[in-house]
Amino acid sequence: MTVGNREFYVYRYEGELNDIPNAAVIISYPKEAFGDAKALRVFISTNVDLSTQEILDTYTYRWPTELFFRQSKDKLALDKYQIRIRTGIERYWLIMSLVHCMCCTYNEKCCTFEEGYLHFQRKVKEEQIATLYQHIQNGMSLEDVLKLVG
What we know:
The protein is an alpha+beta fold and 150 residues long. It is 51% helix and 20% strand. It has a four-stranded antiparallel sheet with strand order 1-2-3-4. The longest helix has 25 residues, at 52-76.
């Protein structure tokens, strides 16, 4: 099957899945990576009336959104906050989206979220170490430095 400009081996299962009485499960491998466990993708749709091609085309279109949410949960704690006030939700969403955007454009050009995230993680560590070093240079005792750390 061809999706976009790539070819895939595809298997479709329709039937009961956990508490879903009828779902379509599509297992796919890129043709060039058949058998590579890391290349395996599984897609689930509760609309079994859609063809396999329609389901895969929809996921292809939605994939950047799926990645955004996965990265936001894994790295930006989207799934850790419980905010019930609309203003708080909007503010958190804005800050999280801004951080995500910063990670994707940290070096004034587009990069992957992971590259930018790692860059900012390193910068934070460097600043922490530089601050501790400065305190030590200014005569802070080891006991006070340890209190500062944690």
